[in-house]
Amino acid sequence: MAEAFEAAVEDGLHLSKRVYFGKDRAVAPPKPPTAMERAAGYSYLPKSPMLYAVITNPAIVDNPDMPSYQPHVHGSCDPPALIPLQMNGVSLEVDCFLDTAFVTLSGTWRVHCVMGSRSCDCRIAVPMGEQGSILGVEVEVPRKSYCTQLVAMDNEKGTEKIDGGTNISVKLRWSQKLLYHDGEFTLNIPFSFPEYVTPAAKKISKREKIQLNVSAGPGTEVMCKTTTHPLKERLRQAGKLGFLYDSEVLSWSSSDFVFTYTVSSSHTFGGVLLNPPLVHDVDRRDMFCCYLFPGKQQSVKVFRREVVFVVDISGSMKGKPLEDTKNALSAALAKLDPKDLFNVIAFNGETYLFSSSLEPATAEVIEKVTQWINMNFVAGGGTNILLPLNQAIKMLSDSCNSIPVVLLITDGAVEDERHICDTMKSLLTSHKNVCPRIYTLGIGTFCNHYFLRMLANIGRGHHDVASDVDSIEVRIGGLFARASSIFLANIALRILINLMILRYNGTFPESLKVNGVLADMSNFSIDLKVEEANEIPIGKCAIDLRYTVCNKDVLTAFIVAKHQIELLTAEAWYSENEELKEKIAKMSVQHAIVSEYTNMVLLETHVQQVRVTFNLRVSSKADKKSKREDSKPQKILTLHNVGLGFGNLSATVENTPPGSGDVKHPDAAEVFVKAASDCCGRLCNHCCCMCCIQACSRVNDQCAIVLTQLCGALACLGCYACCGGQDG
Description:
Blueprint: H1 2-15, H2 35-39, E1 50-55, E2 81-84, E3 86-97, E4 100-110, E5 119-125, E6 133-141, E7 144-152, E8 162-163, E9 167-177, E10 179-181, E11 184-189, E12 207-215, E13 222-227, E14 232-237, E15 240-248, E16 257-263, E17 269-275, E18 286-293, E19 304-312, H3 320-334, E20 341-347, E21 351-353, E22 359-360, H4 363-376, H5 386-395, E23 402-410, H6 417-429, E24 437-443, H7 449-458, E25 463-466, H8 472-483, E26 488-494, E27 503-504, E28 511-518, E29 523-532, H9 561-575, H10 578-591, E30 598-606, E31 610-616, E32 622-628, E33 633-638, H11 649-653, H12 668-677, H13 689-697, H14 701-722
Parallel strand pairs: 3-12, 17-29, 19-20, 19-23, 23-24, 24-25
Antiparallel strand pairs: 1-2, 1-5, 3-4, 4-9, 5-8, 6-7, 6-9, 7-30, 10-11, 11-16, 12-15, 13-16, 14-15, 17-18, 18-27, 20-21, 20-22, 26-28, 28-29, 30-33, 31-32
Helix pairs in contact: 3-4, 3-8, 5-6, 6-7, 7-9, 9-10
């Protein structure tokens, strides 16, 4: 899908050469990447929020202000070409609360590449940071405005076209996680705009603005470390920082917005935050949120690692998915210490073990397993997940003084997923020693991510998604780092029974005690101070404690409602509970978080009309009064479902590679008509008349005779039809 998107943008940039910008040499058209940049791995995938004109008819491509009257273009673009729209202004507002960032990006784009008398669809692409989740989109065009809203299934689908020359104002809102390592937080927002979205006109003002607010919680001190953009500090309070960047620029930002900061503490710290319920919340009880960070401790000891890598080598993993998995696996093995133990299990319809037992991660063994991986990781066969999981769990049954980990990597769905969950529950609850943790990575959209998430929840681990093939290495590396950096296990909160969820009635205790076990098997205890924090939106970050207390190795500081919805969706899939599905849909609508049980719809609203009346007074002076009519949504359009879905069993059986979508196969007549009607040269991967002539010149004599006879017969039939069947 990424390749198809890049191809569509490349076609669009070729089409944009038709846009005429006048004779002024100082006004340059958008510059596509050079051949050297393309050879160096340049990608047309968006590295910042972008708008594209969706072009199916290339004849409409022209400057809406200065028509060039170019020759008419025949044919169509199938699939449609995407022309990046020029951007006239951009503003970024970021609010960081503990380990979550809420991002609002406002921008203005112009449909600079479509005739003023014609219209086209426009597509918004939003690359988001770590674990990003779209919260809402607002669009304003002349006479109309649009906004997204989540509703329970199903409404009419459709899109609206935008006239050429129109200025489009867009506001995008999403949330994403901050990366945390060694006491340092990193915010990374895609904010790198290609040169070809810079307006060609000389006198257009280009203003770039970034506003950043950081809130690390009460009683903390925040210190800025690095930033990619020239921010000016405008607020400094206990636990808070505020920055602003506002400037006229010649060209838009060419790098992502990266900001790092520390929360000063050399030891483990945390707290409890209290909030009143949200305005429209049906549950009127107050809310609380617990957070716990390890702090910056150079000498902190992590648990000894015992890990079994369980890797899918079915036929669908052939090519780049399996090669990137092998590279990531080799990198993970290289990070193990000689005292750590490991094993590798490859599976398709059968299983292949590197060793019958765990092996020490010495240099000699690592070299052997690398050779074994290169020889045995050959894509082919089906998918059987239960057998290798059973082998991995049994292999870790005698672990002690360590956190045993199973790291499962797959791109497919299987029929017995609920049975696998039941089996893992039975195996893990019967363990006498430390219970193995199960970490899962799903590649693409054909695997059932909610099955993998449920599996990770049962195994007290974590689930991650490699939504595209290019992110496999990064995701495996991050998942392994998460699994191998545990410093505190068996976390438990000593609170009252009726406070075991993030809601409470009455008076909350002044402190909360957290207990756990450190890597040296000693007991750990800390008292968390309870504070009111109305400025931090706990309602967007609330989770049910039943999913974290006593079954997570690291109590994540600030888990957004998206995470809770994903966990509940996994539970609803596993239990097939209809009431739970309804609850998820209500939560999704309330928090504006997408889910599998809601659709995102587009509400179209006509801009308020202004009626002007003139009242005459005795003084003969006109008193002008304006009356605004109430604006109401006129149309509701359902957008594409943005959920992950529950896997595709048929695609897994057919070994369809991840990233492959439904391919439309046109019939021969359609291909011939398109080829014969496209006389504009090589455009959007279609043939021209010259291509047909060249193809015919390569036909052998026998085939030429048959084609001639066929054409003659068709011509006779045509004459017969025109004459009404009468004798000529």
